[in-house]
Design goal:
Elements (H helix, E strand, L loop, with lengths): L1 E4 L5 E4 L6 H41 L8 E7 L2 E6 L6 E6 L2 E5 L1 H64 L1
Antiparallel strand pairs: 1-2, 3-4, 5-6
Helix pairs in contact: 1-2
């Protein structure tokens, strides 16, 4: 018996030993695809977390004597233009889907701190789901291997008994 990880708190019990090898293979393939999707999601979340953490770290290094300091302003990921810091306490933050907000230095630091914490919580939730699905997948693989070994043994026994039948006739 194995519990399929479905909605949180709702585990559906399935006796894997009663499923055919074909059904087990189908479940295995579906779970492997889900595991790939979960890995992709985790990679994306780790990237977001790194981006938010990098922004927070940049704000932490910001110094009050940087007014009128010359900086390079990114236009693209590989193209910059020279600029100057005019307002040390006014930041424009990209909050996604083309929306921006203005915050002061402390508000900006707090925003990125909260985003890092939120993304970390999501990573932890998805990692728990990943672990549950990995355990279930391992159960499916274990039962499948047992069924395949039993089928191979049965086939071998049949092959060994057939020459004996042929020789006795």
């Amino acid at each position: 018996m194995a519990a399929t990880p479905s909605a949180p708190g709702k585990a559906e019990m399935i006796d894997l030993t009663k499923l055919s090898p074909e059904q087990l293979m189908q479940i295995k393939q579906e779970f492997e695809q889900e595991m790939t999707n979960i890995q992709d999601s985790l990679s994306t979340l780790h990237g977001c977390k790194a981006k938010y953490a990098g922004s927070k770290e940049a704000l932490e290094t910001f110094q009050s004597n940087w007014e009128n300091r010359q900086i390079l302003v990114p236009l693209t990921s590989s193209m910059y233009v020279p600029g100057r810091v005019k307002d040390l306490n006014n930041f424009v933050i990209d909050i996604g889907t083309g929306y921006y907000i203005e915050k002061d230095l402390d508000g900006s630091k707090d925003y990125f701190k909260r985003r890092v914490e939120y993304v970390q919580e999501q990573i932890e939730k998805i990692e728990k789901i990943h672990l549950q699905k990995t355990r279930f997948l391992n159960s499916v693989i274990g039962v499948l291997e047992l069924k395949q070994a039993a089928a191979a043994k049965m086939l071998q026994a049949q092959q060994q008994s057939q020459p004996a039948v042929a020789q006795s006739s």
